[in-house]
């Protein structure tokens, strides 16, 4: 069969069903001559006649009946699959694969992902979190979430909110017992929750004030690579922790944790939803992008 095999198969089945070249041609939107030529091409490729035709009637040959019986279920499956895919252009459905680092995923899980799922229950979101920078196209993801400064230049980026900031925090009890650091080097005299990067290296805490950046490699009793574990350790009074502000915002508001060195914490790049330009995106993809844009607009208005 040629590359136009689907059209050719549909032509064979239309004639077999209608029992007439004329009726089948009307159904397919072809001229009778064009349909006759198409069937002749199929028969030459197969090396057998599929139809017995006279000026007044058309009927399947034995080979034609065998061919139609075997092809019909497969063609129906193909047509059903194509219809299902086309339906995704109208009604959001199917799976969206999203790659994000864990902190970003925590920030957008409720206001974007869960809100989207509630609005579009036929969509499944596969959210993968990891610290390394991922080529979302090469690894089969539809979308990525990273800070604006880490989005590849060939991607379309949608800011999801205002610039973010880091925060150093400790419990009121720890600060009462050990004092409050006033400048970043004071951290060297404190118990701190050390952070391990995805490549295994220790993370240096970053500070800046009046254009003067400072990096401190803190010391402390424990090294962790996951912010939720670090939060538990800080809340238990082990020492001072370093987080994205969103991860401990509720703890600060409730008085469980207190900020330190707040005047040394400049804003960082905002979180972005990003994706490659694509033709014919699914309805689910379009709907998620639109909700991302709406979230970004709402965050901008709230500033």
TrEMBL record:
Molecular function terms, GO-annotated: DNA binding; DNA-binding transcription factor activity
SUPFAM superfamilies in the record: Periplasmic binding protein-like II, Winged helix' DNA-binding domain
Sequence ranges assigned to domain HTH lysR-type in this UniProt record: 9-61
Keywords: DNA-binding, Transcription, Transcription regulation
Family: Belongs to the LysR transcriptional regulatory family.
Name of the protein in question: LysR family transcriptional regulator
Organism: Aquibium carbonis
